[in-house]
């Protein structure tokens, strides 16, 4: 028997819902507004729009069948994984009412291939589960981010997620050996063989990495794992200025073996985290800038870190260090809880940008002026992955639909040779500014690729390329 949501609706939608229920099971077609609601608003609360229905296929052939039947009805599809994306790419735009395809049931998790250090994993598996599976097999999955309990592998491939350890291991792209995906015409491409060497033409898997659901629906991924690094040390340094953080991070990169993370935050963000999370202040006095670093290896990396800190002879710096898991987690909380602490202030404009490292301190100084010029009453909180020249510019105050501050900050970034999206992607939030980071020739190629793979523009309309 079909659920109550199917009853009393007019037009083609009930038919499609009935059709799809036959493919994925009735409980996996959500038509009623209250069941759809959690899928229709993004993590930030800034982006939302109604879906015609939410469909949760449990296998690749079901995804392909859903895509084919939606295409027959001319219904666009928005793909959603864990819905932790921060640029509005995984939720419907107002007025479009697409079918929202959720990947949460694509939870295939194969045995780790211990000889190769590889693993095939379904798109709906969360980062946390992937990390646990790798750890159990004596390996590690080295991409890490604070949304690990909800973010999915498929979403991370689609956004080419970066996170905390890019400085050592690179972003998601570097861990992807192959992808299985459903294209807009319902065909399946599958490159899950795990070959380390395979020079047979265009790399379709890598084309899908960072495509934000506009070219295909990722259903499974062949992942490269890294050797386990069980010994870790975390240090939090209070420093006089951003430029000092850049300098110390660069010295660590050159000289300390196993540098895995180099993160930056400021006193105002730290105050917010301390208040929001009820944590004690990490140091006995306040500092203008904080650098958090983690080093890891098979052997204890502390000595190398201490030697460097002694050599650097930072008379004006304060340091807190932890090697035990609880102590490390305690120090990481000051950085990792920034996102949720900022969200507690209101709906933020999240501008994730990168600039050349030698321009980072200057950018940090100038962005304060630009934000206070564009939105004088706004609260600005900055933090980021300093090792990658990546700052998260969070502005709370301007209404969701007032993009003056976004425009000013992104133009400053472009003027300084940076990227308007370092790691979160373009989504809907930044589609109108893509030309600040991409030339007209590049955009023409991107549109040609989109046209070749999704000529009717049915996958994630409005995301990345806007109204191409
Ligand atoms: C607290 C917090 C911390 C974060 N920290 C970081 C960070 O450090 N680094 C970072 O890079 N990001 C970070 N993010 C952003 C987010 O976690 C990543 O973008 C993540 O990759 C999104 O995964 P998801 O499964 O939630 O994708 P969703 O939000 O569901 O979707 C994101 C995009 O991918 C598409 N998509 C999802 N699944 C698929 C699929 N199977 N096939 C094709 N397209 C798909 C969607 O259509 C959408 O365009 C953070 C978010 C939060 C809330």
Share in β-strands: 15-25%
Main pleated sheet = 7 strands, antiparallel
User: Unreliable stretches, pLDDT < 50, 5 or more residues?
Assistant: 1-11
Spatial separation of the terminal alpha carbons: 42 Å
The gross shape turns out to be globular
Helical coverage, percent range = 25-40%
Q: Please list the strands of the largest sheet in the order they lie side by side.
A: 14-11-13-12-16-17-15
Produce the secondary structure layout:
Layout: H1 12-24, E1 29-30, H2 33-40, E2 53-55, H3 60-72, E3 77-80, E4 99-102, E5 118-122, H4 127-136, E6 139-140, H5 153-159, H6 166-169, E7 176-182, E8 188-190, H7 204-208, E9 217-224, E10 226-227, E11 231-239, H8 242-255, E12 259-266, H9 267-277, E13 289-297, H10 302-312, E14 318-322, H11 325-336, H12 338-343, E15 348-354, H13 360-374, E16 379-385, E17 390-396, H14 404-415, H15 440-453
Parallel strand pairs: 2-4, 3-4
Antiparallel strand pairs: 1-2, 5-9, 6-10, 7-8, 7-9, 11-13, 11-14, 12-13, 12-16, 15-17, 16-17
The structure holds flavin-adenine dinucleotide.
Flavin-adenine dinucleotide binds next to strand 3, helix 5 and strand 9.
């Amino acid at each position: 028997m079909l659920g109550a949501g199917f009853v009393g609706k007019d037009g083609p939608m009930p038919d499609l819902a009935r059709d799809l229920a036959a493919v994925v099971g009735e409980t996996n077609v959500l038509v009623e507004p209250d069941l759809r609601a959690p899928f229709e608003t993004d993590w930030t609360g800034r982006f939302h729009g109604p879906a015609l229905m939410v469909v949760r296929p449990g296998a690749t052939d079901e995804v392909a069948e859903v895509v084919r039947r939606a295409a027959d009805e001319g219904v666009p599809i928005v793909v959603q994984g864990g819905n932790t994306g921060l640029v509005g790419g995984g939720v419907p735009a107002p007025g479009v009412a697409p079918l929202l395809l959720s990947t949460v049931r694509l939870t295939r998790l194969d045995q780790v291939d211990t000889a190769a250090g590889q693993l095939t994993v379904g798109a709906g598996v969360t980062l946390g589960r992937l990390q646990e599976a790798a750890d159990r097999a004596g390996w590690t999955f080295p991409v890490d981010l604070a949304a690990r309990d909800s973010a999915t592998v498929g979403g991370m491939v689609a956004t080419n997620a970066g996170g905390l350890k890019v400085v050592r291991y690179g972003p998601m792209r570097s861990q992807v050996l192959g992808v299985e995906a459903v294209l807009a015409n319902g065909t399946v491409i599958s490159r899950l063989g795990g070959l380390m060497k395979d020079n047979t033409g265009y790399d379709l898997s890598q084309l899908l990495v960072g495509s934000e659901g506009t070219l295909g629906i990722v259903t499974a991924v062949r992942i490269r794992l890294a050797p386990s690094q069980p010994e870790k040390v975390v240090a939090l340094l209070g420093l006089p200025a951003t430029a000092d953080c850049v300098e110390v991070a660069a010295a660590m990169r050159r000289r300390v073996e196993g540098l895995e993370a180099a993160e930056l935050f400021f006193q105002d963000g730290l105050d917010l985290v301390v208040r929001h999370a009820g944590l004690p202040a990490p140091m006995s006095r306040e500092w203008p800038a904080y650098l958090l670093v983690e080093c890891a290896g098979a052997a204890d990396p502390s000595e190398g870190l201490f030697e460097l800190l002694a050599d650097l002879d930072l008379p004006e710096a304060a340091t807190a260090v932890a090697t035990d898991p609880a102590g490390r987690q305690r120090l990481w909380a000051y950085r990792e809880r920034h996102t949720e602490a900022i969200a507690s202030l209101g709906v933020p404009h999240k501008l994730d940008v990168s600039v050349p490292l030698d321009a980072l301190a200057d950018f940090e100084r100038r962005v304060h002026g630009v934000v206070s010029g564009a939105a004088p009453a706004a609260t600005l909180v900055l933090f980021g992955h300093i090792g990658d020249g990546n700052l998260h510019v969070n502005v709370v105050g301007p209404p969701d639909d007032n993009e003056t501050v976004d425009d000013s900050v992104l133009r400053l970034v472009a003027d300084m040779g940076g990227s308007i999206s370092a790691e979160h992607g373009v989504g809907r939030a930044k589609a109108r500014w893509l030309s600040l980071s991409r030339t007209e020739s590049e955009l023409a190629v991107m549109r040609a690729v989109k046209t070749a793979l999704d000529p009717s523009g049915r996958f994630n309309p409005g995301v990345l390329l806007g109204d191409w």
